[in-house]
Amino acid sequence: MNPDPTNPQRTPYPPSAGGPWHQPAPPPPPFARPARVPRKPGAAATILLILGAVIVGGLCGGGPGAVAGYVTTQPDGPTAPPSMRPEFPDAARRYLPDLKVADLADDWLVKPNGYRCAPSDSPTRISEAKNRMSCEPTEEGLSAVDALIEYDGDTQLQYVGVTCGFKPGANYCKTLFANLGDAIFPRRPELAKQAQEWAGKNVDGDNITTTIGGVRLTIELSPHRMTVIPDA
Amino acid sequence: MTMANVQPPAPPLPSAGDAKRAWRRLRLIALAVAMVVLVAGGAGGYLLTRGVKKTSYRASCGTLRCIPSLPVSSVIDALKGRGFACAEKAGVDTWTCQLRIGDTHYESRIGEKDGLIYKFDNSVRTERSEVADAAKAFLVWFAAMPFSNDPVLAEEIDGWLIPRLSGGADTKVTIGGYFYSLTAASQQYLRLDVWVGTR
Fold first, then answer.
1. Domain coordinates of chain B in residue numbers?
2. Contact between residue A16 and residue A27 where contact means Cβ atoms under 8 Å apart
3. Where does residue B94 rank: exposed (0-12), middle (13-18), buried (19+ CB within 10 A)?
4. Which of A95, A221, B135, B175 can bridge B124 by disulfide, Cβ–Cβ 3.0-4.6 Å?
5. b/e string for A58-82 if b means 16 or more Cβ within 10 A?
C-alpha cells in the first residue's frame, strides 16, 4: 500500500477501508522509488577518492611549488674570478726592466759616441709611449744610422730601436748592435754579455728574435734594424 | 528532515546514518590527504626544481642567461689590478679592457646584464710567431671563468683550449651549456668568444 513507510506525506489517507462512497484506493504516487538505502563507501570508492585527492593535491601543490623553486632560485656560481697565473699579462711588464733613458742616451750614445739626442716632434710611435727621443751620430758618413727611444717617464722605456743602413757585413752595424745589447742591461752584466754576444752573432739575421731577461731582441734586414721591447 | 526519525527504532535501516557518517568521514580524510599532499608536493616540487637549478651552470638574467653569481665588477677589478685600461661603453652595457705590452695587444670585451656576464670575448694580437705564455694565461683565465668554482669543468676547459691555441684552426665547442668559439687560424690573432646563451 504505502510504498514508503518512512514518509508520512505519502499517506494522506488512512488505508481505504471502504468508506461510505467506496472510494477506490489512490494510485501510488508516480515518483515513488524503490527503497534505496545509502550504503557505506566501498573499497573502490575509497581508493578512487583518496587517489583523486592525492592527484589533485599533488598537482595543485607540486606544480606551483616547482615553478616557484625554478623562478626564485639562481644557481650556485663562482663569486670571484679564477686566480691568475703569474704569467698573466701585467702592465708592470710594459716597460724594459731596470733601464733608464739616460742609460742609453747619455751613458752610451752621447758621451762615448758623440751622438746628438733630441725629443722627437713626430706624433708617430712604434709603441704606445708618450715620448720619443731620436739620436743621431754627429760623425761624417753615418747618416744612415739612428736610434729611437720611446718612453713614458725616465725609467719607463717601451721601445728602443737602432737602425743601421749599411749593407750586411758592415762592421759598424755589428758593433752598434752588440753595444745596444750591452747597454740595455747596465746593472746586470751577465745578461749584458749574453745580449751583446747574441746581437754580434746575429747582426745580419733577418727577423731573428730572442728573449733575454724579460726583454725581446729582434734583428731584421729591411730596414737593417735591431729593436728591443718588453717580452709580452 | 532525517528519515530515520520517523520511526525511532527503525530496525530495518540501521546503516543509513552510519553510511552518511562514513561518507563524511571519507570526504574529510580525502580532504586531509589532499592538503597534506598539496603541502608536501609543493615543498617537494620547490626543492626539486631548486636543486636542479642550483647545480646548473647558467643563471637567468632577463631574457638571457648569465654566469651565475659572478659580478662583472669583480672581473673588471681583477683586470684593472693587472694594469688593463677598462671603459664601459654606455648604452650597450659592454666593458672593454685593453693592455699592450711590447708588440702584443690584449683586449677583452665583456657584456653585462643585471650586473652579471652574458658574453665575453678576448683577443691577443701579436707580431710573435709562437703563442706566448702570457697569451695562454690570459685566454685560459677567461675560458675557465664560468667554472672557477668547479675544478673538474675548469680542467676540462683547459684541456680543450690549450692544445688548440697553437692548432692553427678555428674550433667550437659547448661546455656546461656555454658556447665556446676559438679563432686560432693565425698565431698572431687569437680570439676566444664565449656566449652563455638565451633562455
1. 14-53, 64-195
2. no
3. middle
4. B135
5. bebbbeebbeebbeebbbbbbeebb
- A38 falls within a domain: no
Is A124 inside a domain boundary?
yes
What SS3 class is residue A19?
A: coil
Query: CB distance B42–A65 less than 8 Å?
Result: yes
> How buried is residue A183: exposed, middle or buried, by Cβ count under 10 Å (0-12/13-18/19+)?
buried
Percent of chain A at pLDDT > 90 equals 56
Q: How many helices (H) and strands (E) in chain B?
A: 4, 9
Of B35, B48, B99, the CB nearest to A91: B99
Which pTM value belongs to this model? 0.75
Q: Does residue A82 form part of some domain?
A: no
CB contact under 8 A, A84 and B100: no
**What confidence tier does A23 reach under pLDDT thresholds 50, 70, 90?**
low
Question: Is A28 inside a domain boundary?
Answer: no
Q: What are phi and psi of B144, to 5 degrees?
A: -85, -5
B139 chain-A contacts, CB cut-off 8 A: none
Number of domains in chain A: 1
A12–chain B nearest CA distance, Å? 16
Q: Which residues form the domain of A184?
A: 92-230
CA atoms of B49 and B71, how far apart (whole Å): 24
Alpha helices in chain A (DSSP H): 43-72, 101-104, 171-183, 189-201
Evaluate if residue A222 carries a pLDDT over 60: yes
Residue whose cell numbers read 709580452: A232
B136 neighbourhood in chain A, CB within 8 Å = 87
Lookup result for grid cell 683586449: B107
